[in-house]
Amino acid sequence: MTPQREDELLRGMLAHQVGIEPDRAAAVLDLAAVGVVNNAWRNSPVEDWHAGDGPLSDGDMLRINAHTSWRIRQIVRRWRYEVGLPADADAGQLDDVSVDDWDWLAVRIWRWLVNPQRLLPGGFRLVEIAGGDLVLQQEIRSGL
Questions:
Q1: 52: helix, strand or coil
Q2: Is 20 left (phi over 0), alpha (psi -120 to 50) or beta?
Q3: Could you tell me where the DSSP H helices lie in the chain?
Q4: Model-level pTM greater than 0.90?
């Protein structure tokens, strides 16, 4: 498959199956925020906190994951504004964002995700649910 054909297929999938405009930076960043939540939050020790006899019910997880997705999107949107990328910017302009700005975004997201005092929907603080897992996650991530 040629790179051009691969690009056409990806654009078609994003537009028709995912429902986003693949040429808009804001839409691509919103989708990336969902991916961050899935990979850095949902598919982490958080899964163990509600599996089996964990302290979180399916309803708790639904509310926490929805809130986390919303909040990460807000962080990304604020960052996009701060780096001067308008909502209607072409997705190709993402290539012009400096590595330092991308790093700044990654650090902001990470700090929010692992903040022990972060209040979760349901009234729990992250540290109350995570316990030792939070310390482990912070150590693993800081070593990256």
A1: coil
A2: beta
A3: 3-12, 25-36, 46-50, 58-82, 99-113, 126-130, 132-142
A4: no
